Amino acid sequence: MDFEPISLPDVPAKRPIVIAGPCSAETEEQVMNTARSLSRHGIKIFRAGIWKPRTKPGGFEGVGAEGLPWLKRVKEELGMYVATEVATSKHVREALANDVDILWIGARTSANPFAMQEIADALEGTDIPVMIKNPVNPDLELWIGAIERIYNAGVHRIAAIHRGFSTYDKKIYRNLPQWHIPIELKRRLPSLPIFCDPSHIGGKRELVGPLCQQAMDLNFDGLMVESHCNPEKAWSDASQQVMPDVLDFILDTLIIRDMTQSTESLEQLRKQIDVCDNDLLELLAKRMRISEEIGQYKKEHNMPILQSARYEEILSKRIFQAKSMGMSEDFMKTVLVAIHEESVRHQMEIMK
Ligand code: PEP
Ligand code: MN
């Protein structure tokens, strides 16, 4: 697949290309106030969800087609480009009829090949840029498949949006970044622009800035950030939206390191090492939390912390596995003993 850049007149092609706006269009006033502030801060592409896929029924499911004229007003009065999410062929038709400039496909939709094909069929013969979020589950092939369906419909101005992957364990992130997946997507589809959505990865305002920086360090092309004129009062995703002036500050303080070297460069490889280390830390922290739960169980059932048979079994199984993966017995033993020691320390804290 050979993608064309989503180049828009008046939007500089330099990194990062920023798309910002509220999770949802709520009222005409909220849309206009947010868009006006963002425009004053130099944002050229406005996002707002009109049709909202909510996890459970009964929540705010978006204002629907009623919000489309509000987006039109943003275009006409502020000269911004507007983007909204589509999940069905009806959404596509209504958005196109109302001059929406960019469509995006949400994570719940890109996980569903039937929905993707329906959208692709509705796009046949148009040339609107389409952005495709990763599916909720960490399945790179499913993501590529969704992209391929849109590409095969003749739409070649496509970008991917990395918004993290669902997890049962929502301690730090709302959706785990698993950066190696978008990195691998870039390797597989080098001409595909990739945006990062730090808002849905982080789920909390405080994480938006650091995640934007990480995305820039990993050479992402752009950012899609949720911004609301009154985030605490937002009707959806209130805890992750930032005020337009906060977004402006985040963008102003971003460090953009421009990579002129090839992808095989040392710099690029080191970034991948950083990503691996980050994943290792996340996993270790998760392992410690599980071990603490085991500690709690042992305490309630009057069991000793050290279960020698289980420890021996872990050691021999993992060492065997590590050897088949090209790592030495000594190395694996050192790692496992250290992890076990820390784990016992956590359980001792609980017994106390
Ligand atoms: C959104 O962008 O508001 C949204 C619903 O995102 P996602 O599909 O990533 O959950
Ligand atoms: Mn949202």
What does it look like?
It is a single chain. This protein is an alpha/beta fold and 352 residues long. It folds into 2 domains: 17-252, TIM Barrel (Alpha-Beta Barrel); 264-351, Chorismate mutase (Chorismate Mutase Domain, subunit A, Up-down Bundle). It is 49% helix and 10% strand. The protein has helices spanning 28-40, 68-78, 89-97, 107-110, 113-123, 140-152, 180-188, 198-202, 205-217, 244-252, 266-300, 308-324, 329-351, and strands at 17-21, 45-47, 81-85, 102-105, 130-133, 158-162, 194-196, 222-226. The chain has an 8-stranded parallel β-barrel with strand order 1-2-3-4-5-6-7-8, surrounded by 5 helices. Helix 1 (28-40) links the parallel strand 1 (17-21) and strand 2. Helix 3 (89-97) runs parallel beside helix 5, helix 5 (113-123) packs parallel to helix 6 and helix 11 crosses helix 13 (329-351). The structure holds phosphoenolpyruvate and manganese (II) ion (MN). Phosphoenolpyruvate is lined by residues 23, 49, 53, 106-107, 133, 163, 200. Manganese (II) ion is lined by residues 23, 226, 236-237.
Summarize this, please?
The chain has 352 residues and is of the alpha/beta class. The chain has helices spanning 28-40, 68-78, 89-97, 107-110, 113-123, 140-152, 180-188, 198-202, 205-217, 244-252, 266-300, 308-324, 329-351; strands spanning 17-21, 45-47, 81-85, 102-105, 130-133, 158-162, 194-196, 222-226. Phosphoenolpyruvate binds at residues 23, 49, 53, 106-107, 133, 163, 200.
